[in-house]
Amino acid sequence: MMTSSQPPPSVVSNDARVDLDRAYRASNTQQILDEVDRELVGLAPIKTRIREIAALLLIARLRQELGITTERPTLHMSFTGRPGTGKTTVALRMAKILHGLGYVRKGHLVVASRDDLVGQYVGHTAPKTKEVLKKAMGGVLFIDEAYYLYRPENERDYGQEAIEMLLQVMENQREDLVVILAGYKDRMETFFHANPGLHSRIAHHLDFPDYTLDELMSIAEMMLRQTRYTFDDSSRQTFQEYLELRMQQAHFANARSARNALDRAKLRQASRLLQQGGQVSKEELMRLDANDIRASRVFHNGHADDAEVREQNG
What we know:
By secondary structure, the protein is of the alpha/beta class.
C-alpha cells in the first residue's frame, strides 16, 4: 500500500489511461530536481540516479492506481562518499520527492549520528533510538557515518541494540519511514558485510564522487555570490592554487573545505579592513584579496590548520 497521499483523480481517465505529464507535474518532482541542479554543481551520475528513482516511484504509484497489483518499492538507501559531496542536500530533496509522490506523510528530514542513537549505559539506547525514530516517522531518517553504530571490538558497546531496532523499523514500518545510511564507501561496505540484515533492506546505493578542481571553483564562486562577496583575478587564481594544494592533503572535505576556506578568508578581510581604517568603498567591502587567501597555513607549511583537520567530522 502507498500512503494516503494519492495522485489527483484526473490523471486516470475513464478508459484506464493515465496522464503521465499531469501526474509528474502534480508531484512537483521536476521542480525539486531543478532545485538539485541549481544547488549542486556536477554530480551528474547522482542526478541521473535521482531522476531514475523518481521515475520508478511515479510509475509504481500509477500502476497501483490502475489496479496493477504490485508491492511497494523498497525505498531505504545508502549514500557513500567523502564529506562535502552533497549527501545531506540530496537526502533533503529526496524526502521532498518521496512526499510529493505519496510515499511518506510529511517529507521532513531528520539527521542523526551515533551519539543521537546509542546510549552509554544499560537501558539508555532504546529510549534514545525510539525518540529519534519518533521524530523521523512520516519522513526520512538520514544517519551519517552509520558504521560508527557497529563497534565489534567493544563487547560492551550498545550500538548493536540500535542497529536491531533500526532493522525492525525498516522492515515493519517501511510504509511510514525511509532510512538513508551514509558514510565513506569502504567503511560502509565493511559495515554492511558485518550487518547483512541492513544491506538486504537497502534498495538504492548512490556513490557520490569527489568534486573536480573546476567544480570546486564553481562552487566557491556560487558561495561568494550568495553572500555578496567576490574574487578579483588575483584572488581567484590564488584560491585555485589553495584548492590544488588542499586537495592533496588529508581530511579534505570537498565543498565543505572550500566553504571553510572562504569563511577564514572573510575573517582575514575584515581584520585587514579594520587595520587599514579610513573610508572604504562598497567594492572593497565585497572583494576578497589574494593576501586574504594566501595567509592560509596551507601555503606556508603545507598543512591545513586545525579547522580544516576537524572538517570531516564537522
